[in-house]
Amino acid sequence: MAETIPSLYLITPPVEQADSFAPILEAALDAGVIACVLVRLAVRDEGSAKKIIRTLAPLAVERGAAILVEGEAQWALRSGADGVHINGATGENPAPLNEAIHKMKPDY
């Protein structure tokens, strides 16, 4: 039986500036086997969000980790992320999840 190597799912704190956070993320990515990084954003405008994601994503991708964006499917699509993480979608309110699925299909 082949041995499996455990990997980690990293979740960033809310990121406001990519340049100051990039060295922290690089250190975390180099600390172990990372499968995925969930980027949480402190900014609410798309331009700033895309800049952060486009700065951080290559750091993860070159180490074999996927990049997810928290809560904003459109930002994930427009910034080249691998996908989106949707919070708060429940059986009682599936709208956020359904909207993300609609935007991300069929490639993500």
Structural features, described:
The chain has 108 residues and is an alpha/beta fold. The chain is built from 4 helices and 4 strands. It has helices spanning 18-29, 46-61, 73-79, 95-104; strands at residues 8-11, 34-39, 66-70, 83-85. Strands 1-2-3-4 form a 4-stranded parallel beta sheet, covered by helices on one side. The protein is globular, with a radius of gyration of 14 Å. The protein starts with 7 loop residues before the first strand and ends with a helix.
Unreliable residue runs: none
Strands, total number: 4
Biggest sheet details: 4 strands, parallel
Strand line-up across the major sheet: 1-2-3-4
Category by helix and strand content: alpha/beta
Overall shape: it is: globular
How many whole angstroms does the radius of gyration measure? 14 Å
Range of helix content? 40-55%
Q: What is the typical, i.e. mean, pLDDT?
A: 89
Binned strand content: 15-25%
Oligomer: single chain
Distance between the amino and carboxyl termini? 31 Å
Order of helices and strands: EHEHEHEH
Total helical elements: 4
Summary, kept brief:
With 108 residues, this protein is of the alpha/beta class. It has four helices and four strands; from the N terminus they run βαβαβαβα.
Features:
108 residues; 4-stranded parallel β-sheet; 4 helices; globular
